[in-house]
Fold this sequence. Notes:
Layout: H1 2-10, H2 16-19, H3 26-30, H4 51-109, H5 114-119, H6 124-189, E1 224-225, E2 232-233, H7 235-246, E3 253-254, E4 269-273, H8 286-301, H9 303-306, E5 308-313, E6 316-319, E7 323-326, E8 340-345
Antiparallel strand pairs: 1-2, 3-4, 4-8, 5-6, 5-8, 6-7
Helix pairs in contact: 4-6
Coiled coil: 57-98
Keywords: Coiled coil, Signal
Region (Disordered): 186-221
Amino acid sequence: MRWILAMIAxxxxxxxxxxxxxxxxxxxxxxxxxxxxxxxxxxxxxxxGTRTLRTALExxxxxxxxxxxxxxxxxxxxxxxxxRLKRAETDxxxxxxxxxxxxxxxxxxxxxxxxMLLLAARDRAEFLRRTAGLETIAALDDARLRDLxxxxxxxxxxxxxxxxxxxxxxxxxxxxxxxxxxAERALAAAGGxxxxxxxxxxxxxxxPAPRTAGGxxxxxxxxxADPTTRGxxxxxxxxxxxxxxxxxxxxxxxxxxxxxxxxxxxxxACDFAAARDGFEDVNASxxxxxxxxRLAAYLVHNADELGVLYVIWYRQIWMPGNGWRSYSGxxxxxxxxxxxxxxxxx
Length: 346
């Protein structure tokens, strides 16, 4: 039913009120069509730069996000291990106190041996009771000692595991630093790299896209119908489109295209027009520029929730770990990303 509504909306069959309703569904992404004569996104635009640059940036961004997910998972395991160690240390303290009481009493009064207790029995019934009592005491002592040894062994294991997690975290931090350096070198070789950026601390918060149990981004392929074209997108791409639209960014969007480089043919990228009526062959200015600035800041603000690889807008690129850097394309406003915001997702 949603697919039918989306097609009706694309054909202009829904009333304006329905078209403007901010519901979270497929139709919400594609109800705005470019005006007659407005340009579609430049099909020759491969997200700017060369294929070598794009490959380097994609690999650096993915490796950074993978390392970040492993780092967070390691920190979570370390927290769980710290709780295990605390419980083990509490058990050790309690068991040590119990064993100490017995040891102190034995030292103060002298250890009462089994034969002494049995010889002091006045009759057979008392002899049997004392025999059973000795067996109970022995069992309790053995249990306390076993528990104490087990608690100490658990504490040793927890400490060793915490040490392993600390080393793992240091390794992932170094991987992230290396990937940042890779991206910086690639951008510098292409003539970019100077800091810049679009930031808005008041950007709305998007709902997080699903992750694996370990906190990583699951592998996704182009399996979902793209409501902006006749192609396909990944579930995460569709989620990002829906979130952006629900948070007020409702101008024309185009995602899948079958040819060219970059993420578009994989269904992992979208171009968000800055102009109200579609992709215009001019540099955005005024309200259109302000819209693009806000959208770029929104996507960056929610990068962790949406799984953002990079955002390109107005000759600048944002990547996780590197922040905003200059990214000077050549040619039309589409090639320089001055008429649309480009989003690539993991």
